[in-house]
C-alpha cells in the first residue's frame, strides 16, 4: 500500500522517536540536544523494515553503525533486542506500506 507524503513523514518521525527513546549514546535527556542525532540510522533502518529484513540483519546493521560510526561500545544483545522491537513496531503500524508516495511514478 502506498502512503501519502504526510503519512510517510509520520512513519519516519515515529521511527526516529523510537530510536531517540532507545538513545544508545545517552544524549536525548538533554532538551537542547538536536533531535536528529540518529537520523543517519533511521532512513536505512526504515528501508530494512520495508524490505522485511530479518532481525539478525537489522541487529548487525545497528551494531555496526553504533560501534563504527558513533564509536560506541554497544552490546549485540541490546541491538538485537532493539531490532526485535523495531520489527514489531513496523509490523503493527506500517506492514505492507511502501516508500514511494501515492501519486508518484515509481
Query: How many domains in all?
Result: 1
Query: How many beta-strand elements?
Result: 0
Portion in helices: 55-70%
Structure classification: mainly alpha
Low-pLDDT sequence parts: none
Assigned CATH architecture: Orthogonal Bundle
**Number of H- or I-type helical stretches:** 4
Arithmetic mean of pLDDT: 93
> Any idea what the shape is?
globular
The separation of the N and C termini measures 13 Å
The description of the largest β-sheet is: none
The topology string of helices and strands comes to: HHHH
What CATH calls the topology is Endonuclease III, domain 1
Radius of gyration: 14 Å
Strand percentage lies at under 5%
CATH class: Mainly Alpha
Query: CATH-wise, what's the superfamily?
Result: Apc36109-like domain
Q: How would you sum up this structure in a few lines?
A:
This protein is mainly α and 106 residues long.
Account of the 3D structure:
The protein has helices at 5-22, 39-50, 55-69, 76-93. The protein is mostly helical and 106 residues long. It has a single domain (5-93), classed as Endonuclease III, domain 1, CATH 1.10.340. The protein starts with a helix and ends in a 13-residue tail after the last helix.
Structural topology:
Blueprint: H1 5-22, H2 39-50, H3 55-69, H4 76-93
Amino acid at each position: 500500500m502506498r502512503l501519502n507524503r504526510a503519512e510517510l513523514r509520520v512513519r519516519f518521525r515515529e521511527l526516529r522517536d523510537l530510536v531517540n527513546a532507545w538513545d544508545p549514546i545517552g544524549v536525548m535527556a538533554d532538551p537542547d540536544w538536536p533531535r536528529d542525532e540518529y537520523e543517519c540510522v533511521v532512513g536505512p533502518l526504515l528501508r530494512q523494515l520495508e524490505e522485511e529484513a530479518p532481525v539478525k540483519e537489522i541487529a548487525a546493521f545497528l551494531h555496526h553503525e553504533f560501534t563504527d560510526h558513533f564509536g560506541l561500545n554497544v552490546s549485540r544483545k541490546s541491538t538485537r533486542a532493539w531490532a526485535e522491537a523495531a520489527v514489531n513496531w513496523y509490523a503493527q503500524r506500517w506492514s505492507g506500506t511502501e516508500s514511494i508516495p501515492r501519486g508518484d511514478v515509481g
